[in-house]
Amino acid sequence: MADRLKPKSIPRPLVKTNQAFIVISVLLSWFTGAHWILALPLAAGISGLVFSYNPVIKLAGLFLRQERSSYLQEDWDQQQFNQSIAVVCLAGGLISYLAGWTIASTIFTAMVAIAATVALLGFCIGCFIHYQWKMYTYRRRQAASHK
Description:
By secondary structure, the chain is mainly alpha-helical. The chain has seven helices and two strands.
């Protein structure tokens, strides 16, 4: 019963592995010209969002040396929000490459690569955006309730 009351979370090493996979995939697609590589993190991200099953995170989980709960935990909902942003950027990048829109594809893939790299270094851009959005909606609700 206590498990149902605990908020869902993901061990930080698994989140970082997913971020690294995104960065490596983007870099490989840039340097090799094999833009289909972007379909790999895109498919993993979509699967994580739709089915709550990200194969990159599941595979990385096999290599954890300690109990999952012993690692620093990342909020599940926050990671879903971040993954949504990554999926939009990866899809935008892949579709743009397929359409021959070089500038758009570079912008989309650079955005996701930069965000994932910065997250690996310790600052989560998606978390910042999510927090700002939550504060904005909270202030709107407060203002509406005082009218």
